[in-house]
Design goal:
- The structure holds two protein chains of two kinds.
- Chain A is an all-alpha fold.
- Chain B is an alpha/beta fold.
- Chain B contains seven helices and nine strands, in the order βββαββαααβαβαββα.
- Chain B is globular and about 55 Å long.
- The two termini of chain B are about 35 Å apart.
- The chains are: A mainly alpha, B alpha/beta.
- Chains A and B meet through helix 7 and helix 8 of A and strand 5 and helix 2 of B.
Chain lengths: ~250, ~250
């Protein structure tokens, strides 16, 4: 990797942290308003085991939601690809689900899941958020096979099932992979928002840690939890970039 | 006997107007015909009519070659990127219900026929342009077609590769004698490969002229310098110039 690509952002972040630390000291900003980077670091270390467990909870719920969303989205896109009428019928509902803010429907899901199972509501909500990119990617991919290959399948007298399984599904693979990558980020956002709205300690994810620390005015701990969340999301992003590249290499053969 | 006949066919696309015709054309068993004309004259449309991939707006298409007896090669190799060269070539057989093992054996033989035996396991992304076109040719030949249709098959290749492929195609033709119709806008290529060169007018394409090339197939070495080649090329060029001026 390019050394400058590592050093330049590290230097900038370091400089910003120093400026933050010193200005907070000299301006006497109270700890509960803006804790210093050193205080945040201490909170991060002190709460590391708790934050790690919570990050794992949020990550696990996000990934479960992603799996649910991907299975449902790919399945529905496959069914819808068989008939244009069906596609037209489903589209508006899918779009409506996508444009409705997850915060707005979250309380409903919390009621349906019941007070004892906030995790079910959270996974369902995150799955709804993650559903659309996989669905639209798959649907687009299934319709994007090379037109000349489609003509060859006509010429060879392929039936509908052969065309679907041997042409359209393989053609859609890069689109499905890309949609899933986008969905992985959305699943985390969906999980955090849903945890937030569920607002109970039942799920014990990172959003709950932020909420809890905020209620107690433990601002440094809040920052530590936010930092943990950002690091986790970044790790997931990098992991899916890597998986995407591997999947495309497998698909293309190099 | 004619393998495929177009009688007074016209193709009109909604919103884009007339693309072809009225146009009459026929190709006999074992004959090699080149379709030459300016861009947008409907050459590719005529080819799709011959393949039965499209129906004419007016006129009649009759095809003696059954569905499985027609093969098409497009301008780009059009290989499935997720399949090896061998799997690409065996695809037409597998879709027709040939058992996978036998299909793969025949695909390997077809790849060897076009000089790609060593690259059977390679993916399209690992093949050069010329190799990919050879694989596409192998896929077209694997079913033992009676009618082989090629739509500017060598247009994207460099001169050396396209000459090598032209000679290979003629050698393959000498083996199994399929009827070949190929579209090109390269006059030399048409004269070198075809027994008959059909020149079309700018779109909507009609017949502008027809030239028979009097030389045995496959062409003798040095044919490009022979009087028959020059005469043929001049006659085709003249017909093309006349079509453009009209």
């Amino acid at each position: 990797m390019n050394v400058r690509a590592v050093i330049a952002p590290a230097a900038l972040i370091g400089a910003l942290l120093c400026a933050w630390e010193f200005s907070a000291h000299f301006a006497h900003v109270p700890e509960y308003l803006l804790p210093t980077p050193v205080a945040i670091g201490n909170a991060l270390v002190a709460n590391a085991p708790l934050l790690l467990v919570s990050a794992w909870r949020t990550l696990a719920m996000s990934l479960e939601a992603l799996v649910v969303a991907a299975i449902a989205a790919i399945g529905l896109a496959l069914i819808v690809s068989l008939s244009q009428t069906l596609d037209r019928a489903v589209r508006p509902i899918a779009v409506a689900l996508q444009v409705t803010p997850v915060v707005a429907i979250a309380p409903l899901f919390v009621i349906w899941a019941g007070v004892d199972h906030p995790d079910r509501a959270i996974i369902a909500l995150a799955a709804i958020v993650a559903f659309f990119p996989v669905f639209s990617g798959t649907a687009r991919g299934l319709g994007s096979a090379d037109p000349d290959l489609e003509r060859l399948f006509d010429l060879y007298g392929a039936n509908r099932l052969q065309r679907l399984l041997r042409l359209r599904v393989p053609s859609a693979v890069p689109f499905i992979v890309e949609g899933t990558k986008v969905a992985s980020g959305l699943a985390i956002i969906g999980t955090v928002v849903a945890e937030w709205v569920a607002g109970s300690g039942g799920a014990q994810g990172l959003a709950w840690r932020i909420l809890e620390a905020g209620n107690r005015l433990e601002t440094a701990k809040m920052f530590a939890a936010i930092l943990a969340l950002a690091l986790m999301a970044a790790a997931v992003h990098v992991a899916f970039l890597f998986l995407e590249r591997r999947a495309l290499r497998w698909w293309r053969g190099r | 006997m004619s393998v495929a006949v177009l009688e007074g066919v016209e193709v009109v696309y909604r919103g884009r107007g007339a693309a072809l015709g009225p146009f009459d054309f026929s190709v006999a068993d074992g004959e090699i015909v080149a379709l030459v004309g300016p861009s947008g004259c409907g050459k590719s449309t005529a080819l799709r009519l011959l393949a039965g991939l499209e129906a004419p707006t007016r006129g009649a298409v009759s095809r003696a070659a059954a569905r499985g007896e027609t093969s098409v090669v497009f301008q780009s190799a059009t290989l499935a990127p997720w399949l090896s060269a061998r799997a690409n070539v065996s695809l037409p057989l597998e879709l027709a219900g040939v058992a996978r093992g036998e299909a793969r054996t025949r695909a390997t033989a077809a790849l060897e026929r076009v000089g790609l035996g060593a690259a059977a396991a390679a993916r399209p992304a690992q093949l050069s342009g010329g190799m990919a076109m050879r694989a596409a040719l192998a896929r077209a030949l694997v079913t033992g077609p009676r009618l082989l249709l090629l739509d500017e098959p060598f247009a994207a290749l460099d001169e050396i590769t396209r000459r090598a492929l032209a000679d290979d195609l003629l050698a393959i033709w000498a083996d199994s004698r399929p009827a070949i119709v190929f579209v090109t806008h390269n006059v030399e290529e048409a004269v070198y490969m075809a027994q008959r060169v059909v020149v079309m007018t700018p779109g909507p394409g009609r017949l502008a002229g027809e030239t028979y090339i009097a030389a045995p197939l496959p062409r003798p070495p040095g044919f490009r310098a022979a009087p028959a080649f020059r005469e043929g090329a001049e006659s085709v060029s003249a017909a093309l110039a006349g079509a453009m001026a009209a």
